[in-house]
Design brief:
This protein has 252 residues and is of the alpha+beta class. The chain has one domain: SET domain (Beta-clip-like). It is built from five helices and twelve strands. It has a four-stranded mixed beta sheet with strand order 5-6-4-9, with helices on one face. Strands 1-2-11 form a three-stranded antiparallel beta sheet. A three-stranded antiparallel beta sheet has the order 3-10-8, with no helix packed on it. A hairpin with a 5-residue loop joins strand 5 and strand 6. The radius of gyration is 25 Å and the shape is extended. The termini are far apart. Bound molecules: S-adenosylmethionine (SAM). The site of S-adenosylmethionine has 14 residues, from strand 2 and strand 7.
């Protein structure tokens, strides 16, 4: 008995195919794709695989529910860095196409240090700021506030926009570039206050958080709401088009 077990064990250890033998036996065409010994069987890098696995879900849902997908890509404006493109489907006019993620500061809160050389600080009409920078001190502050405000295992905001794989695929509004000659604005910013009665279970998808913790229990209801900024399409936007906003909106 010991002999055939050992022989079976040895054959199993020598088995080199991807599929188990009982599947391979059922397949007539057993053409081999050989991978040299000592090399790794990788056609595309791990990072590319991970990117597809992690991002696919969000984009699929976006396409099914909203009828379009947006993604960050190299801008069509030379030297402008990255931008946001409609990559699938079509955005009808007056549709929420992106959100502006980040930490929310009231005008009296300290943002000077974080704002130095930071092109991602958005200023609302009433002087509230949203820091949408996903790097350096801005990123540390957002993560710190997110950790502070979570309630046990329950998250009160989304942190995945700080990575290349946002769970909420709308949270890329900070990458929308400014309009220029030949690239007129096709989206515009709109501010919205999330009130305290917003469903708790959905807060984990919001890519925004308060800088200060104590104001959320303030007697003044205006300090308890969370400011979010969305980008709305000004016209129908087709797949392949880049989004452009007007950074210099004058509200009279
Ligand atoms: C909020 S960020 C937008 C995302 C940025 N393109 C990136 O790759 O990180 C603003 C910065 O983008 C660049 N930018 C935006 N619109 C531009 C334009 N029309 N022409 C050239 N650069 C632009 C400028 O460097 C600006 O400081």
């Amino acid at each position: 008995m010991g002999g055939w077990v050992r022989r079976l064990q040895a054959r199993w250890q020598a088995y080199r195919y991807r599929f188990v033998p009982w599947i391979a036996m059922n397949l007539k065409d057993r053409k081999l794709r050989s991978v040299p010994k000592g090399t790794q069987d990788k056609i595309i890098p791990d990072s590319a695989v991970l990117s597809t696995l992690r991002y696919q879900h969000g984009l699929d849902v976006m396409l099914k529910t909203l009828g379009f997908c947006t993604e960050r890509r190299e801008s069509s404006v030379v030297g402008a860095g990255r931008g946001v493109f409609v990559t699938k489907g079509k955005v009808p006019a007056e549709t929420v196409v992106s959100m502006y993620p980040g930490t929310m500061y009231y005008p009296f809160e300290p943002i000077l240090l974080q704002s130095i050389a930071n092109p991602f600080v958005f200023r609302c009409i009433d002087g509230v700021f949203i820091d949408g920078n996903d790097r350096s001190i801005s990123k540390m502050i957002y993560r710190s506030c997110a950790g502070r405000d979570r309630i046990g295992p329950y998250l009160t905001c989304d942190q995945s926009w700080l990575t290349p794989y946002p769970k909420n695929p709308l949270a890329v509004g900070q990458y929308v570039n400014n309009q220029s000659a030949g690239h007129p604005a096709n989206v515009a910013y709109q501010e919205y206050n999330i009130k305290v009665d917003f469903p708790f279970s959905l807060r984990k998808y919001l890519p925004n958080i308060h800088y200060s913790p104590n104001l959320q229990t303030s007697q003044d209801a205006s300090y308890r709401s969370l400011r979010v900024v969305v980008l709305l399409s000004l016209r129908d936007i087709e797949a392949g088009e880049e989004l452009f906003s007007s950074y210099f909106t004058l509200v009279e």
